[in-house]
Amino acid sequence: MTQRRTLLKSATAVLALAVASPAFAQSTDATRVVASFSILGDMVERIGGEHVAVTTLVGRNGDAHVYQPTPAAAKNVSEADILIVNGLEFEGWLDRLAEAASFDGEMIVATSGIDPIPYGEDDDHDDHDDHDDHGHDDHADHDDHDHEHEDHADKDHDHAHDDHGDEDHADAGHDDDHDHGHEDHADAEHDHDHGHEDHADAKHDHGHGHGHEDHADAEADHDHDHEEHAHDDHHGHDHGAFDPHAWQSLTLAVTYVDNITAALAQADPANAGDFYANRATYVAEIEALDAEIKAMMAALPEDKRTVVTSHDAFQYFGRDYGLTFLAPQGLSTESEASAKDVAALIEQMREEGISAAFVENITDPRLLTQIANESGATIGGSLFPGALSEEDGPAPTYLDMMRHNAMTIAGALGS
């Protein structure tokens, strides 16, 4: 019996020593990374693997356009070694959050170095043409996040996507899948009605570096001057001069991956070899999927290459694969589709025989359903413009999302 007690004590001591050893302290030794939304979080995990602890601010099925930071989010940002953001003014709330969190880590702009699509080619955006030189290297200016108040308080769409976006924010603090112990996000209470009361005076604050300038007289109505298929180019200033949805290009996704890999390698040189090995595997998968989708889209008839979606998030996809995307809303889900825009889109769909429209996981499907009904089109399925699905859904990873979108489009337009 004495011998048994001795062995038990020894085993307990060994276990305690093992738990305290560096091999078991991975979560504390891992580089702490905060990603602004779920697609970036997935990319970071693919590259960083076991060497990173990832927190995602806007979780699965969450809409980054209407996200409202919480104290829990500020806490996680304040503790992060690296903050990965999309840039191109996609996260209009980011500067406020970083300032509130007193963030002093490295901010990495995933789109740094890409050639973005200008939004509204005919507009005077000369002052933004040098966006790629806006201090991306030191990340001190938070790159393209000067739109501190893109919270467009009056754009109250009563989005039904609250039903499937808010659970990520309310229950999992924007990281229901990649949390690694960050369940403290649980108080993420995004009313998404869209909770913009506190930003009522910051409608479309497009100061481009003058985040608190009051542009109250330019509330982005733009008078919807685009009578002729206004959905193509309306609300170009929802995110500024450039379309931020660059992840919809698998070619540009390689740039995202390269920027993330370089940041992780700089933060953790000891594991740089693993990061670059993971990058090589990931890029090979991205390029293989790109070739697969190109073949899929090339098989579509020439008169079946126009896609109608809820908001204008797929221009990069269209550019890569020779498709035309139309949407009643602009670059942001917060932008308001006027009756004139909707009527013009319905007329265009009738004239061109566009037979399918696609709803999105982060937007209210009612407007697209109305447009489909009035134009004689059918709902071809649900696309994922900027947020992953739940892990048991059709788009749990970035590559799954891109494949799902392509297959859904090809299935509806090719039938």
Task: Tell me about this structure.
By secondary structure, the chain is α/β, with parallel strands linked by helices. It has two domains: 223 residues, Nitrogenase molybdenum iron protein domain (Rossmann fold, 3-Layer(aba) Sandwich), CATH 3.40.50; 122 residues, Rossmann fold. The chain has twelve helices and eight strands. The strands form two sheets. The protein has a four-stranded parallel sheet with strand order 2-1-3-4, sandwiched between helices. A four-stranded parallel sheet has the order 6-5-7-8, with helices on both faces. Strand 5, helix 9 and strand 6 form a beta-alpha-beta unit. The longest helix is centred in the last third of the chain and has 27 residues. It is globular. The N terminus is likely disordered.
Mean pLDDT: 75
Instruction: Summarize the helix and strand pattern as letters.
Output: HHEHEHEHEHHHEHEHEHEH
**In total, how many domains does the architecture comprise?**
2
Lateral strand order in the biggest sheet: 2-1-3-4
User: Based on CA inertia axes, which overall geometry fits?
Assistant: globular
Through-space gap between termini: 76 Å
The CATH superfamily title of the largest domain = Nitrogenase molybdenum iron protein domain
